[in-house]
Amino acid sequence: MGCCESKFFPSNETHPENDKPQNHGPIQTEPFINRPPAVAAAAPDSATIPSFSEFSLTDLKTATNNFSSELIVSESGEKAPNVVYKGRLQNRRYIAVKKFSRLAWPDPKLFAEEAWGVGRLRHKRLANLIGYCCDGDERLLVAEYMPNDTLAKHLFHWESQMIEWAMRLRVALSIAEALEYCTNEGRPLYHDLNAYRVLFDEDGDPRLSCFGLMKNSCDGKSYSTNLAYTPPEYLRNGRVTPESVMYSFGTVLLDLLSGKHIPPSHALDMIRGNNIILLMDSHLEGNFSTEEATVVVGLASQCLQDEPRERPSTKDLVATLAPLQTKTEIPSYVMLGISKQEEAQPAPPAPQRPLSPIGEACSRMDLTAIHQILVMTHYRDDEGTNELSFQEWTQQMRDMLEARKRGDYAFRDKEFKTAIDCYSQFVDVGTMVSPTVYARRSICYLMCDQPDAALRDAMQAQCVYPDWPTAFYMQSVALAKLDMNQDAADMLNEAAGLEEKKQKSWKGS
């Protein structure tokens, strides 16, 4: 199978909604500006989230079927003036793509800097930002896709099951934890926090959309909701402050309490009149703790104070809501009444053909054994893939080969991060192509728990050497690490078939 025929490139079909979103990262492209040297260290619970990168417009057009209207997932125009699309990348990872209006960010550098600031954040309570795109007048953000709708949908537009009280408290705490993390990381401003900004992931756990961490435009316009829900100081001076975010959090608490979108002034009148029961969602039918509800009502009242300095901090939110949590042992998807995605199998199914030593190591996902085999195979498989003229033996060429040599030493000594850096220097020059370098860098990425990058390198090795079994074996391991187990099994069998074909050809000659 040639590279351009690979099954891991997307088709133009609309992808079914009930497919499980895969945790696969973006295809990185060269930036148009100088990037920061690295994204800041991620939170400990973000190991499976791909690193932040720049996408090409072609990547995102392909992922969204040319921004098909059928893939728009924005709840409504009023709540999401910049349209959000569902997309699927080449490695089958689902994404959410926010497409800004043409004039929102005229300066591409300013947009990129703002996106990188948000992109360095990583937390399990966020629907994290994984990339951006600047191309001509286009300005796009790319985030993790959340398949189980918004809080607004579950609160206001539910059909079969409303959100029970304990789940509402869980949602409130999750938002508070996300805001506290962002505040601690120096990003305390959240623009237009509302029930449409709270999303549910494949496990039904609530996540705060990262899109709200970035302004809707460079001129600072931050609120698109009805003026009745907008912080009073924003109406006065047009500026969002951390205290403004607390006011918006108070409006979300009102949503969770009432199951309706009640204007804060009306809700505060009910609270002052001790009409808390009238405020509560009638669909709960009394199935809530009055003591807990009183605490949440009190917190909402504090958040909605006209004087910003009288509102609580994010730390106060967490401290108030954490003790109220009940039913912590029950998964969120059960409480929401949604289906749990099937658990991934730990390894691909058994292959249909006998395997060589590298095939056996790949089927076991034994990275140490794969590394040792690649150390021993040297560069024999690269023969015939490069034909260099005398003129190409420049100093640049010598530097490039020196980089490969340093990479080989690091690879042999299991210094995988150093090997990635050296091999990347070799690859980036682009004068020589080496499937072995791609395969070696692929296993290095796997050793560093970066299966997305490993899959890309294995696919590049296949492009250079379409019939090389090792390229297919490496794809199999990367796919298995990404929980794409049937695809991993198919790739394993394809590699074994290529080896079998090669052996027959040798015997015939």
UniProtKB/TrEMBL annotation:
Its main location: membrane. Its EC number is 2.7.11.1. One of its GO terms (molecular function) is protein serine/threonine kinase activity. InterPro entries: BSK, Kinase-like_dom_sf, Prot_kinase_dom, Ser-Thr/Tyr_kinase_cat_dom, TPR-like_helical_dom_sf, TPR_BSK1_C. It catalyses: L-seryl-[protein] + ATP = O-phospho-L-seryl-[protein] + ADP + H(+); L-threonyl-[protein] + ATP = O-phospho-L-threonyl-[protein] + ADP + H(+). One of its GO terms (cellular component) is plasma membrane. The keyword GTP-binding does not apply. It is found in: Cell membrane. Residues 1-32 are annotated as: Disordered. It is a lipid-anchor. Pfam families: PK_Tyr_Ser-Thr, TPR_BSK1_C. It comes from the Eukaryota. GO terms for biological process: brassinosteroid mediated signaling pathway. Keywords: ATP-binding, Brassinosteroid signaling pathway, Cell membrane, Kinase, Lipoprotein, Membrane, Myristate, Nucleotide-binding, Serine/threonine-protein kinase, Transferase. Residues 70-325 form the Protein kinase domain. PANTHER family: SERINE/THREONINE-PROTEIN KINASE BSK5, SERINE_THREONINE-PROTEIN KINASE BSK1. Belongs to the protein kinase superfamily. Ser/Thr protein kinase family. This is non-specific serine/threonine protein kinase. The lineage of its organism: Eukaryota, Viridiplantae, Streptophyta, Embryophyta, Tracheophyta.
